User: What shape does this take?
Amino acid sequence: MAIDKETVKKIAFLSHLKIDDDKIEETEDEFNKILNWVEQLSEVNTDGVEPLVSVNDTNLTLRQDVVTEGNQADAVLKNAPQAQYGYFTVPKVVE
Amino acid sequence: MTKLTELTIAQARDALKKKEFSAVELTKAYIDEMDNKRKFNAYVLETPDVALAQAQKSDEKYAHGTNGVLEGIPLGIKDLYCTKDIRTTACSHILEGFEPQYESTVTSKLLNAGACFLGKLNMDEFAMGGSNETSYYGPVVNPWSKDVPLVAGGSSGGSAAAVAANMCAAATGTDTGGSIRQPSAFCGITGIKPTYGRCSRYGIIAFASSLDQAGPMCKDVRDCAVMLNVMSGYDAKDSTSAKVEVPNFEAFLNQDIKGLKIGIPAEYRPEGLNAEISALWDKGIEMLKARGAEIVNISLPHTKYALPTYYIIAPAEASSNLARYDGVRYGLRINGKSLDDMYINTRTEGFGKEVKRRIMVGTYVLSAGYYDAYYLKAQKVRRLIRQDFINAFEKCDIILTPTSPVTAFPIGDKSMQENPINMWLNDVFTVSVNLAGLPAMSLPMGLSHDGLPLGLQLIGKAFDEGTIFKTASALEQDAAFRKGIK
Amino acid sequence: MTGMIIEGKTASWEVICGVEIHCQIISKSKIFSGASTHYGSDTNENVSFVDAGMPGMLPTLNEHCVYQAVKTGLGLNAKINKYSAFARKNYFYADLPQGYQITQFQYPIVGEGHVTIDLADGSTKDIGIERLHIEQDAAKSIHDMAPDKSFIDLNRAGVGLMEIVTKPDFRAPEEVGAFLRKLRSILRYLGTCDGNMDEGSMRCDVNVSVRKVGEEGYRTRCEMKNVNSVKFVMQAIENEAKRHVEVYESGGKIEQETRKFDASTGLTKPMRKKEYAHDYRYFPEPDLLPLVLDDDYIAKVKTDMVELPDAKRARFVKELGLTAYDAAVICENKETADFFEKAALGHDAKKVANWLMGDFFAMLNEKKLELKDSPITAENLGKLVELVTSNVINGKTAKDVFVIMAETGGDPEKIVEEKGLKQVTDTGAIEAIVDEVIASAPDNVAAYKAGKSNLLGWFVGQVMKKSQGKANPAIVNKMIAEKLK
Ligand SMILES: [Mg+2]
Ligand SMILES: [Zn+2]
Assistant: This one.
């Protein structure tokens, strides 16, 4: 499966990364190299093989419904690049 | 007399107990060493004041006999571990200035055991890399370098170099595809990636959640046992951490290995494998045989597919794990006209080339229309790879392989810069273990013709680190590896 | 068939609709962190480092959210899946701190079920439930605090949600309205969600398409997100369906898209389209293992189930003799049903229902009170009815006593006692008054005997007046009729 410039742009958009126009071709080439290489997996017969999601043999342990955290707005906001009135602030979101 | 910084944890611990020197003296010795060896670029943040304050407390604890297992032992911490109020960046520009308001579980355990933190160690950005060259803070220089600066390996390159150059008594590392074992091999130290779930991932910045594991990187096998004992254990804050008892790993050292079945996988000796590495492997086999271990030829038929499988699964998880770096709540922000612009500017500026490459690959393999062909397929092959090991462990107790197909290479190596796959191929002997969730250790076994360390890898059954320690302590004694650098 | 048919120029069109409801789970802490779910706390105070998507933070699943989802699944007559799993839904959004939502995708915790809705003509219809899955809520931004900035409060980030998805079984806006009311009623009975649409604890996404009557299969649908009242949902469906018909009849094509409902106009308009924005790249959440429930667990939740509105209604009709209508009204809300049952215990249930739906609701309405704040307790309402049925007071006195109860919160027995309001059932005493009235109005007696039988009421009224309303009207009636025969 070779990918084209459109796909590169789409992937960049979904990743929220910008690729300069003069770098698109380079990215496309690199992508195709990588995809060609991983393509070798198609040689493997995986008929009837269940995908492995986790190597853990156990099931999920659940947490009790108890409030254990909170009242730490200062710590939550400590590293904020921009905050005001106790909120994180960002460029205005227009719907 | 040996310099204080050359002592292992076990030696320093005994000397501290006997009050041969104080924790403050020991810490100062390391701080001096860090000063002297900045050229290796092992630390991205030095915290001498923090370490000395901790050491002072440790001396009080020794005075009162309330000392912990690692009381007064100066450690270096990989920059992937969140340390409360101490800058943690994963060596990425995007986490510029980030000071976590929480402590990772593993570093909490180390602190509770009395350790002193000398600083944060260099690494590949977000642990993505095999040479520590993707770090925002520049590459680590392998202390074994002679005329040409060599890489320390990656991603835990700072940890490996710091331990090798006596800039800390031991360090923490993390291993997603070989990031503890490969730099350990490159720098002539001992490092173990425990079974997935053995150590909590809470507070360790995620790269690929289903593969990441914390582990110690040390001067010898015993120190790995001491460190791992402290670092291990179930943590309710990490749903993937295992509710499994943690044995006393030190108790496995020096045990008899007679009759132990050592598996030798045919697939790890591909055509064209470096002759020195191949010979070193044979040497290891002979040593174990001489101690009465039984050598068993095994097959791990899907080994060839481990790398492509890894380079689908790890980027996929990473693309999602790194979505939170958006400039809103912490770290770098590059403004833009709109929110989307701000996100895009921040991420484009904040992430390095390799990280962006993997985010894009990961995004692609998960995207509509490609998921089945790539991600789902890789998950199926992952099961086959794991099954290979399960089958092999019916015939043997432990597996011996080389750690890496190469020795430390020059910083800026052209072929690897030009084609990322060439760099990725260096993980060929280490990634299967992560995909299968197994424990594995790299230990130094000798030097190449040009005087660079070579390592062998021991792979154990899940939660059977004990057998690794047992086997490794035998190999360590027989190899009598001497660091040979000052 | 109760469906809505739109008569177009070329054909008759049928409305097809399905909904997805996001219901905030009632729990103390968030679904994947130990922060509080309390509504109305100070900004960013109910936030754990997990909710803030801080580096290295990991989710841990709240057992109560699982319990609530299973309970709700049982309430929707649905299959509980013993194996379920979490997935990540990836997209960038200011209100999504992790850059993905942890939800369930391929393996939801609850599978197919159904809800029976009641239609205006008295008929019922089963609406199929496709699935219920659990997931985390997003944060909340404020866009009108400054001209150039949006403000983000993470308090809501990570609150547990149940997303309930129906099959495309609705054929009219009223059916969706009935469904939302019934669902809200069930959730409140179960105590799994407070069902408050205006506070956003129940949020509705609507999918609408149309097709010609008799046509097979479905045409392209449009989705309207977060329509926040039953009225608006119904309005949105109707107008969107009409739009589809107009587009088709003028030879146009409907694009599958998400549209925004504008409450001020009642119309829908397309949301700003983002290219590729809908590639969510779902994949299994590697930070959480699969969720496995066993039979014992499900059986245990079953034992905690309460009687749901439909069952309660049927019982009230069958065992307590209520009309279907009264039972439906009383059972819509669990508190009302419980109040009623308490009030009716040991008394005439039908009469209690009449009082409840009449004077009692009117009183609450007038005083603008919630049921839980009613001055008249269930026991006292029951006692009041009993005083009437056992002839201690008559209906008219009861109304007066009710007014006093509403003012003072008093016990009707005591009020009757203290104010001497017991009706006179002593026939001797009544007879004396009757004789007195008859003797005082010979003209009316004559007129009555001459055939003006409606004068009976006048005589009864006079007797009641003279007895200060305390005479038993039935006895009075009977006696006067006897005497004037
Ligand atoms: Mg949905
Ligand atoms: Zn949802």
The pocket of zinc ion (ligand 2) is lined by residues C 22, 103, 135, 163 (CB under 6 Å). The beta strands of chain A are 83-84, 87-91. Chain A touches chain B through 52 residues (CB under 8 Å).
